[in-house]
Amino acid sequence: MFEKVCFIGLGLIGASLAQAMRDKKLAKSIVAVSRSQSTIDKGINYGLLDAGFDDAAFAVQGADLVVIATPVQAVKKIFEQIKPFINDKTIIMDVGSTKGNIIADASAVFGEDMPKGFVPAHPIAGAEKSGIDARNAKLFDNHKIILTPLDTTSKQAVKKVIALWAQTGAEVVTMPADYHDKVLARTSHLPHLLAYNLVAQLAKHNDNMDIFRFAAGGFRDFTRIAASDPTMWHDIFYANKTALLDAIDEFSKQLSQLKAIIETNDSEQMLGILTQAQAARQHFGHMLNKTPYLEKQAMKQTYVIAPAQQFEGSHTVAGDKSISHRSIMFGSLAKGTTTVTGFLEGEDALATLQAFRDMGVVIEGPNQGRVVIHGVGLHGLKPSHDPLYMGNSGTSMRLLSGILSAQKFDSVMTGDPSLSKRPMERVAKPLRDMGAKIQTTGEKGTPPISITGNQTLTGIRYEMPMASAQVKSCLLLAGLWAQGTTTVIEPEVTRDHTERMLTAFGYPVTVSKVHNGNQISVTGGGELTACDIAVPADISSAAFFMVAGAIAQQGNVTIKKVGINPTRTGVIDILKLMGADLTLTNETTVGGEPVADIVVKSSKLQGIEIPEHLVPLAIDEFPVLFVAASCATGKTVLHGAAELRVKESDRIQVMADGLKTLGIACTVLDDGIEIEGRGDVAQVFGGGEIECHHDHRIAMSFTVASLRASDTITIHGTETVNTSFPNFAELVNSAGLQVKVVTD
Fold first, then answer.
1. Does the annotation mark 695 as catalytic?
2. What average pLDDT score do residues 128-141 get?
3. Which of 148, 539, 563, 711 is the most exposed place for a label (fewest CB within 10 A)?
4. Could you give all domains of the chain from N- to C-terminal order, each with its CATH number?
């Protein structure tokens, strides 16, 4: 990659980079400059250097890469020494922790003749030990390298430097130098300053020996960085003086606030700061690395499922995801404290919870399904400092679009790669009709979504072209702030959790029948009053157990306390039409939502033409219903389900592809599917490999198919099951399936 590389300085960073380049044969010749002859001798003896010098001017001659790895306050003098001996083909890269001062030094030395190969860099890596003996070729593995190239820096030089760092295992990002110094002042320089200060403060105590002897792990963790090189950090603190002073002022202000909170025994404020900090520490890592909220979730996961015959027992499935989402939203926007029990601790619901934490709401938990929300009222949300990260949750993004469109502040919502492909114009368009300024991305209107605050919304009358509970809920939520009345007319009845929860929180809602659907109206200007919410088991999660019980050769399963909201029971109605042995017992009402135990036994299913009025009532359950249809005798036909094509995946096409892989004949329609059932044979499905396209319901549906399979079914991309049913594999195995979870 390079002919001759000259390192000026052989501390931890310089020596580690030199070692990495030597190990990977990235340079024909490596030389170094050091004031210490001992360091030069060690470098040669270790095989790290081909030669060493004490004169930078001599050493850099003929080098196509010069790495300046000295304390930051020494860089200007080095520029002066090497100036006569470099040219536009020489790449000059410093690795200092500050960038603005180094660029200023370069400008002072080179003036208008700034080298085109000058690429300021900062490796975000280090250790307490320093010097050539502490070198580590793997120091930069999985660490970030920040580049702050100038307008005068050649693109070719930047490209080559990026390639160099990539060879060391690092991830390279670029940003302006002033922004780098501002960020690092807060994330690196201030913590080091505080660590040094705390240790120095305690060392002054007369009883310092006991203080240090009995210091707990937290003290050791925080002050570990105070063992770093004092000379280096002395230089950094002064080199980044302006940004560091701003960071100290911010910290001092926050510390004064904490002091006042403790003095006044303001428990809620203290709890808010602590929970916010805990959640933020976890959240930022997930958001930046695009990792799951759930710590135990693998980034890549596969199900390997052996054929099974029985599915039995009494089980409690995951809490209702739709109600969990809304409990956080309504509890946050209400006046008073809302306690939620049965909250679904899955990826999607956690994304909603985190979004409201980011907007200043104090939320305790979740702890075993219990969440306590200290509501701020309809006008109490605060702007998030960063984009709101929705993970994989389309429900979060679409419903929050309505809420955020009415706020005084600007907002941006992002999501994971899957969510970033899903259409959002179906909520954005009617919101614009209400007066919102909302912008989606690209021709397809996908996330990120940008919303301009401080707009006046006006109620509208909106006839939905397609039945969608998410669109309906989004507009009703926006209507809470709108002038006048917002009316949504749905072509078919959809789940009514929003309407029920508005009523539970004391907000008037008008619902009337119109054709096959409902007309729902809210008038802006009211308020929500806190109440307690008990989340029932999710009927969408229960659906996998219902179908499993019906198709199993030995099926007898009870699903406990399932929400049977009449706008969600399409799956029950469809299974009964197909001949399923399904009964409801122990029917009651919990938190305004009807619940029941559902008992399902082995059944001889018949293919049917699914009534279109039931389609919106079972929209999320169709993937597993397609499995049931495959196990039925005769043909099953579905029309009116175009919405399935804009879910986490195109569920019609993805399910059809998987069914064909397993030997099922089916025909994809524009708005549905035809499935030729094979219920007359015991082993309906063959084996094979299924790609679920990171869609949790696809993954769980084909898992259920193993009950009538002749061979092993392997499902790739099952990590997203945690979005709605975190303990799915464990629970179905307890009922009789044989699911092996393979993680990467």
1. no
2. 85
3. 711
4. 2-175 (3.40.50.720), 183-265 (1.10.3660.10), 301-315+537-743 (3.65.10.10), 321-534 (3.65.10.10)
